[in-house]
Design a protein that fits this description.
single chain, about 140 residues, alpha+beta, Alpha-Beta Plaits, four-stranded antiparallel sheet, 4 helices, 4 strands, about 45% helix, about 15% strand
Length: about 140
C-alpha cells in the first residue's frame, strides 16, 4: 500500500482489503481517529481509499502512514454482528419519512367516500379537499 497523495496535514491511501466492507471501514476509521493529532478520517468502502486529515505539528505523515499500514496488516475483515429478531430495524412505511402508516391512508379514504356519498355534489368534492388541507397542516 503506497500513499496516493501526501501534502501537509492530509494523506490519502488505498487498500484493497477495505473494498466492499463497510464494517471494516468503520472499524479502521475509529482506530485511526484514536491516533493523537488526527482530526478527521474518511474511508470509502467502494474504492478502499482512506483520507486522513491531521495536525502537522502533532504527528508526521510518515507516522500516520506507518500506523495505518500496521493496522491494516493486523486487521482481518470485520464482519457485521449476527442479527436477531429483536435487532431488526424499524419498518419504514414511506421513502420520505413523512408517511404516518396505512391507518392514515384508511382514514383519508373513509373521509373521501363519506364526503362523496353523504354530501350534496359541490360539498361532496370540496369538503374532503378542505379536510385533507387542514390535516396536513396539523
Amino acid at each position: 500500500m503506497a500513499p496516493l497523495s501526501v501534502i501537509p496535514g492530509r494523506v490519502r491511501l488505498e487498500s484493497r482489503k477495505l473494498i466492499g466492507s463497510m464494517y471494516s471501514c468503520g472499524y479502521l476509521t475509529n482506530k485511526i481517529n484514536a491516533i493523537e493529532g488526527v482530526i478527521k478520517t474518511d474511508i470509502n468502502p467502494r474504492t478502499g481509499r482512506i483520507l486522513v486529515i491531521f495536525d502537522n505539528s502533532r504527528i508526521s505523515s510518515e507516522d500516520i502512514i506507518t500506523d495505518i499500514k500496521n493496522m491494516l496488516d493486523s486487521m482481518e475483515k470485520v464482519e457485521p454482528p449476527a442479527r436477531t429478531w429483536y435487532d431488526a430495524p424499524p419498518v419504514m412505511h414511506g421513502m420520505n419519512g413523512n408517511d404516518k402508516g396505512t391507518g392514515n391512508a384508511f382514514i383519508h379514504a373513509a373521509i373521501d367516500i363519506a364526503g362523496h356519498v353523504l354530501l350534496p355534489k359541490p360539498f361532496g368534492v370540496l369538503l374532503p379537499i378542505a379536510i385533507h388541507a387542514v390535516r396536513k397542516n396539523l
